[in-house]
Design a protein that fits this description.
With 116 residues, the chain is of the alpha+beta class. The protein is built from 6 helices and 3 strands.
Amino acid sequence: MTPFLDTVFAALADPTRRAILSMLLEDDMAVTDVASAFPVSLAAVSKHLQVLAEAGLISQEKRGRITWCRLEPDALREAGAWMAGFGLMEAVDLDAFERFLEEELAEGDREAKAAS
């Protein structure tokens, strides 16, 4: 994984930050409106917003005296592509694999006995 993905997944690891991203799916929000949705201080929410901004998941823009937050959905594209790669692999049937190995080993034993 790239350092960018490490940063994105670290940002997504926190439930408060995931909740903030869900809120921003609806529309841009002022920092104070985001903070009012959580039972923590404005400073704590600001730290969460900073982590999300550093990961490129949100952008912040000052409009007058109000700082607005906007979701940056393209930032999840690389993480989504990385995770989608796991969906392309078929599930491994371990029982069938074990039977295959037993058959191959048994066949190898038969061939070795026939050769001697």
